[in-house]
Amino acid sequence: MAFTSVPTAMKKDSNGGQGLILGRYELGKLLGHGAFAKVYQAYNVKSGDSVAIKVLDKEKILKGGLIAHIKREISILRRVRHPNIVQLFEVMATKTKIYFVMEYVRGGELFNKVSKGRLKESVARKYFQQLISAVNFCHARGVYHRDLKPENLLLDDNGDLKVSDFGLSAVSDQIRQDGLFHTFCGTPAYVAPEVLGRKGYDAVKVDIWSCGVILFVLMAGYLPFNDQNIMAMYKKIYRGEFRCPRWFSSELVRLLMKLLDTNPETRITIPEIMENRWFKKGFKHIRFYIEDDKFCSVEEADDDVGSYATDHSSMSESESELDTRRGAGSLPRPASLNAFDLISFSPGFNLSGLFEEGGEGSRFVTGAPVSKILSKLEEIAKVVRFTVRKKDCRVSLEGSREGEKGPLTIAAEIFELTPSLVVVEIKKKGGDRGEFEEFYNRELKPGLENLMEEESQSTASAAAAAAATADSCLPPDSE
Questions:
Q1: Assign residue 70 a region: left if phi > 0, alpha if psi is -120 to 50, beta otherwise?
Q2: Helix-helix angle 203-220:121-140, to 10 degrees
Q3: Which residues does the UniProt record annotate as the domain Protein kinase (predicted)?
Q4: b/e per residue 201-231 (b: at least 16 CB within 10 A)
C-alpha cells in the first residue's frame, strides 16, 4: 500500500463533473457519509476494477483533533490484510482532502439481510465462522475492533463476509499499565458489560462478546438485549438477562451462554470457540498469501507455486519434477538489469550499494546457476519450517509464528546482471524488522555463504562491467 500526495484534488472531465483522482480513479455514486468523510463508489480507469473511496476533509479532521486517529486507522488497516476484512489499497492526499482507496464490497451490509428475518442455521454459522476467523487474525496482530455489529459486516459477490469500519479500533500499544483499555466506545446494544462498568476492560473479551450478540441476531432476527429505555437495556446487558428462542439447538444455546458470559474471566476464548462442536461443522481454516496485492488461496495456488504445508511436510516440487513438467533445462530466465536499473539500486551513481546490506533487505552478486539459488533458499526454509512459494525467479519465504505485524515474510528475486552473473535481492515483505534481521543473520546469510563466496570472485568484474555499461548510457559531461 502506498501513501501518495496528489498535486490537485481532482481534474475536471470533459463533462464538467468530478473526474480522475491521481489520473486513474473516477468517482461514481455516493455510498454513504458521516461527519468527517464521504464514501463513493469509483473505478480504476486503467484496470476497470471497482473500488470504494473514502474522502476525508482535512480541515474538519484538524479541527476535531483526529489526525492521530486517522494515522492509527491507516496503521491498523495495513496490519489486517485478510480475505474476510475489507482491504485498503492505498492512501492519497491533497492540501484539503485525504483519500482512502478501498475494496468495493457489492453485497451491502449483513444488517440489511438480517432485517428481512432470521437466517438459516447453516448460513448464520458460515458468517459466524468467517467473523471469528477475521477477529482472530486481528487479535493476533494486536488489533481490536471494539465496534463489531451487523452494520459493519459487509457481503461480497460470493456471499462471503467482510469486516469493515476500523474507525473505533485500538492497538495493543494503547493499553494502559494495568493491561486494560479504558475508552468507552461501541454501539449500545453490542457493548460488553465490563465496558459499562468503566473500570477498564480486555478488548479481546469485548470483541468476543460482540460476536456473541451478532450470532444471536443472525439466528433470532432480533437483539438479545433490547429496551426502548437505554438505561434499562444497559441493566439487562450488565446482568446478562436474555432468553433464547425455542428454535435454537441445545448446542447453539450452550455456545451463546459461553459467549455472553458477563464475567470476562470465564468468557469463552477464540481457540475454544474454534473447538466448539456447533462452530466446527463445515469449518475450514483459511490459508492464504498475498501476491501482486491480491489474496491467493493456498488450495487454489498455481501449480508453479511450491509450498511446505503447515504440518511441515514438504509439498514443494523438486527441481527434477519441475524440469520434467516444463521440459529439461527450461527454468525461467531472470529479468535482465539495464544500466538504469543498476543506478536505481544504488544511491547516486555509487554501484557499491549493490553489495551492501540494509535494515529491510540486502543484495548480492553470484555466479551460481538459478536452480542452485532456488534450491538453497528452499533448503534454508525447510530447516526453519518456513512455507515456500516459487513463481519464475521469485521466491517467498513465510514463517508460521504470528506477531503483531503478521508472520515474517521474505521475498527473494533473481535478476540477470550478465550472461554468467545474477543479482539476488532479498527484502522483508511482512513481519517485524528485528525478527527479519535476526533471521537474516542467523539463518539466511550463513546458508547463502557458499553463494557469497562465488560472488567474491566475480564482484569486481561485475561492478566494472556494470559501471562501463552505465557510463556508455549517460550523456557526456557539459563543459
A1: alpha
A2: 170
A3: 25-279
A4: bbbbbbbbbbbbbbbbbbbbeeebbeeeeee
Going by the DSSP 8-state scheme, the letter that residue 178 receives in this structure is T
Cα 410 from Cα 427, distance rounded (Å): 6
* 307 C-beta neighbours (distance < 10 Å), count: 21
- Supply the mean pLDDT for the chain: 77
Looking at 57, 147, 323, 341, which residue is catalytic?
A: 147
Q: Is 157 a catalytic residue?
A: no
E strand intervals along 360-463: 361-366, 387-391, 394-398, 409-418, 421-430
Query: Which tens digits make up the pLDDT trace of 48-107?
Result: 899 999 999 988 888 888 888 888 888 888 888 899 999 999 898 888 889 999 999 998
| Number of neighbours of residue 371 by Cβ within 10 angstroms | 13
Helix, coil or strand: residue 53: strand
Provide mean pLDDT across the span 178-183: 63
Q: Which domains does the chain have, with CATH numbers?
A: 2-103 (3.30.200.20), 110-280 (1.10.510.10), 288-473 (3.30.310.80)
Whether residue 376 is annotated as binding a ligand: the answer is: no
The grid coordinates of residue 295 equal 489474496
